[in-house]
Amino acid sequence: MTILHFINTILIGFRPCFSRKKTFEWFVVIVIGLLVRTDSLGVTSVIRGLLLCVDYMGLIGFFRSSAWGLEALTAKWCALVQQYQPLVMFRDAVVIIGDGVKKSKEGRRMPGVKRLHQESGNSAKAEYIWGHLFGGVGVLVEKAGKCFCLPLALILQDGVKTIFGWGEVKERQTSHVTEMVMLAGKMAKYLGKAILLLDRYFLSVPALLALDEYNACVGNPIMHIVTKAKCNCVAYHLPVNIPGQRGRPRKKGASIKLFSLFEFEADHFISVKALLYGKPEDIRYYCLDLLWGNGLYKMLRFVLVEYNNTRSLLVSTDLTLAPLDIIQLYGKRFGIEVMFREMKQVVGAFDYRFWSKYMPKINRFKKKTDADPLDQLTNPQAQKRIKLAVKAMEGFMFCSIVVTGLLQMLSLQFSGTDELKKLRFLRTYRSSVASEATVADFIKKNFTYLLHRHKDLPITQIISSKQGDPIDTVYTNNAA
């Protein structure tokens, strides 16, 4: 199977998700266009990247079309990933990573834009921005020692509560933390038993309640969370209830500040050598099970880790996981940060510009006590148009997810083969498996040649039907 045959196989698999053939063809054109474009100036870059001779309004109309639904596309994407990629399995469970990503947006009539606080130590980032907050999840795939976090879903999870509250079916009415667990649960339904890796921001009572609700809904605990606790975390011992004692039974025992155990239990720490972030490290750890959560008092497994003068509190909802497994699993969480970086810098996933004239203009000086203009919007036509603008943004994001996933799939599938051996010059090769940026550079420079070689493929015919000149003419002109 060649590179273009593999891309064709993946994209043709989405055909049942579209009720109209023309809409599916636009989907193929947009994904390929995002894959080979040389600039990130919105949807018009697709036209320039593929030398299309089409109406711009026809292309932009795809994102608001009623011929596709995001849930069906996500389900099919998960099925294709499971079929064609070597998923990282741990105790018969896939490893899913979730996190939020913020992107500044200046559109005054762009739905979902709100004032966001950026918790970062980077001085180049502003403390507050106006933009979108996306919740994303990915699954770990690995081959030949190279591990990628392959994106599965990326949706707006803040600033859209009012918009998704219109109509009979109300969605996304909870917090970003809860929505993240629910989104990961949807992916677990498609992929099977899963371990969800989250950062310390998501260790909260609402998140654990959402996890318990999801596991109770499916009938058995098919998803567990491995995360990190803050340094001021307080847990509780099991209560000691004396038979015959008056009063209701206690729900918790004595409290304990977990970070203090680094000093008080220093003699009980175990020293081992483990592989962290691809390097062998000398670590010390101490494990104990305690109750956590004010009013919830759920039993969690805490692992106190110390290495390179760094102290961390790791947490797992699965009490059967060994401490070293928890440490190494959490070490893989950083993969989603790398995924976000590649989506921003290589694919240009967040360079969209969808808006609606029905959207009330954002007032950046509005106080919290002032009424939200969206709450006063009762026109059904205006509500529909605003929701379509949100659908367009998330549709563009899904196409970018497919592009990022294709780059990772091609890297794992074809690195080292004759077809992908002529890559761009690199001074230092850190791995035998190419990065997303290296594969993207190769495809952009050779895609016209690949189309010329495989003129009989369905995706080649779809693209040629949208171009002003036949593929042979385009290839000849570019070669000249």
Tell me what the structure shows:
The protein is globular and about 85 Å long. It starts with a helix and ends with a helix. The strands form two sheets. Strands 1, 2, 3, 4, 5, 6, 7, 10, 11, 12 and 13 form an eleven-stranded mixed β-sheet that branches. It is built from 14 helices and 13 strands. The chain has two domains: 3-198 and 334-466, no CATH class; 233-313, no CATH class. The longest helix is centred in the last third of the chain and has 35 residues, at 380-414. It has 480 residues and is of the alpha+beta class. The model is unreliable at 473-480 (pLDDT under 50).
What is this structure's SSE topology?
Layout: H1 3-12, H2 21-36, H3 44-50, H4 56-60, H5 70-84, E1 89-90, E2 93-104, E3 114-117, E4 128-143, E5 146-156, H6 176-191, E6 194-197, H7 205-218, E7 223-229, E8 234-236, E9 255-257, H8 261-264, E10 270-276, E11 279-292, E12 298-307, E13 310-316, H9 323-330, H10 335-347, H11 380-414, H12 436-453, H13 458-466, H14 471-479
Parallel strand pairs: 2-6, 6-7
Antiparallel strand pairs: 1-2, 2-4, 3-4, 4-5, 7-13, 8-9, 10-11, 11-12, 12-13
